[in-house]
TrEMBL record:
SUPFAM superfamilies: Glyceraldehyde-3-phosphate dehydrogenase-like, C-terminal domain, NAD(P)-binding Rossmann-fold domains. It comes from the Bacteria. Residues 3-121 form the Gfo/Idh/MocA-like oxidoreductase N-terminal domain. This is Gfo/Idh/MocA family oxidoreductase. It comes from Paenibacillus flagellatus. Residues 140-243 form the GFO/IDH/MocA-like oxidoreductase domain. Pfam families: GFO_IDH_MocA, GFO_IDH_MocA_C3. One of its GO terms (molecular function) is nucleotide binding.
Length: 332
């Protein structure tokens, strides 16, 4: 079976998926839509697909089995619910939105429609992340230290808080997600965001340029995330997990993992392309009808979004706030 795919959005990440999907024999991209017709035409031509006149026209079950929704988080409307309602399986990029109410509504619509769904928390697909997850089963992490510096995006929407949700919600969401995935759910969060430098570079920016976030997990473990989207001379990300008798460190967005305990001191760097693994898992799921190989579904991605939203509420209120526990528990 060939899985026929429609692509909504033809920007940076959509082109990355088109390139990745072209390496997956089961996948065939048949249609592309973008509000920028030229972008859609270029992207469609690169894979021999046609250009659709609207997202609604693209979401036609007789043309496609699955859709990749790759528009920015402010520009998705009800696309996920419409696709699901028409029986179209969906892959949607992270983060899932900018507030929880509409995301909850869409989650319900997807669940009730019974279609397959995957969210772009791509770092979960590193074999190194899987090894860390396996190692951590049954072990107690009591402290998490994470950071991510220097991720900026060229698009104007990205610098607008009401369109991107800021660096924590958009880029650092990968680290927020890996902490959930590896250690467990968040209980509460307390955050501070600064804006002391971003105006020098981008006078129109409304996002923060730095964040200092602390949290408690359901397990009782505590941790911090520090982040900045302005860091031209130091662009790195790391998650350090401390246990009473072990230490686990994920570097380079999870590509490299170090595990230290009394019996071992190993560092492994992945040779896998997690984007390929992610897209292949989704395409194969659609072909087989089983979502077992999908590592992040919609409800799971919604819980990751909830953390950033709670962090911003905390910064406004000045105190710790609970992270709303919507959706199913993280997959074992
Ligand atoms: N998983 C990852 O690691 C990863 C990496 C990069 C981006 N992303 C996510 O992917 C999304 C898109 O990011 P990007 O880097 O491709 O942005 P981009 O600015 O490069 O491209 C966005 C595209 O969406 C189009 N668009 C905007 N509104 C639209 C609408 N209503 N309908 C159709 N098309 C519309 C724009 O014309 C543009 O072509 C964001 O949510 C971003 O956070 C995820």
């Amino acid at each position: 079976m060939t899985v026929k795919i429609g692509m909504i959005g033809a920007g940076g990440i959509a082109r990355h998926h088109l390139n990745t999907l072209s390496k997956i024999p089961l996948a065939q991209v048949v249609g592309v839509f973008d509000v920028n017709r030229e972008s859609a035409e270029r992207a469609a031509a690169s894979v021999g697909a046609r250009v659709a006149d609207s997202a609604d026209a693209l979401l036609n079950r007789s043309d496609i089995d699955a859709v990749f929704i790759c528009t920015p988080q402010f520009a998705r409307d009800d696309l996920e619910a419409v696709a699901a309602g028409r029986g179209i399986h969906l892959f949607v990029e992270k983060p899932l939105g900018l507030e929880l109410d509409s995301v909850r509504r869409k989650e319900k619509a997807i669940r009730e429609a019974g279609v397959l769904h995957s969210v772009g928390y791509v770092l979960r697909y590193y074999d190194t992340v899987q090894q860390a997850k396996h190692y951590l089963q049954g072990r107690t992490v009591h402290l998490v230290q994470a950071y991510r510096f220097g991720t900026s995006h060229p698009a104007a929407w990205w610098r607008q808080q009401h369109q991107s949700g800021g660096h924590l919600a958009d880029a650092v969401t990968h680290q927020v997600d890996l902490i959930r995935y590896l250690v467990g759910e968040y209980r509460d969060v307390s955050a501070r965001f600064g804006r002391s430098a971003i105006g020098e570079l981008y006078p129109d920016a409304t996002i923060a340029d730095a964040g200092a976030v602390s949290f408690t997990l359901e397990s009782g473990a505590v941790g911090t995330i520090t982040e900045s989207c302005i860091s031209p001379f130091n662009g790195e990300s790391e998650i350090k997990l401390f246990g009473p008798d072990f230490y686990v460190q994920l570097s380079g967005n999870g590509k490299t993992v170090t595990i230290i305990d009394k019996e071992r001191h190993v560092t492994i760097t992945s040779k896998r392309d997690p984007s390929y693994e992610q897209d292949k898992a989704f395409v194969e799921a659609v072909a087989s009808g089983s979502g077992d190989s999908i590592l992040c579904g919609y409800a799971d991605g919604m819980r990751t979004l909830a953390f950033a939203l709670a962090a911003h509420r905390s910064a406004e209120s000045g105190g710790a706030v609970p992270v709303e526990d919507e959706g199913p528990p993280v997959m074992a």
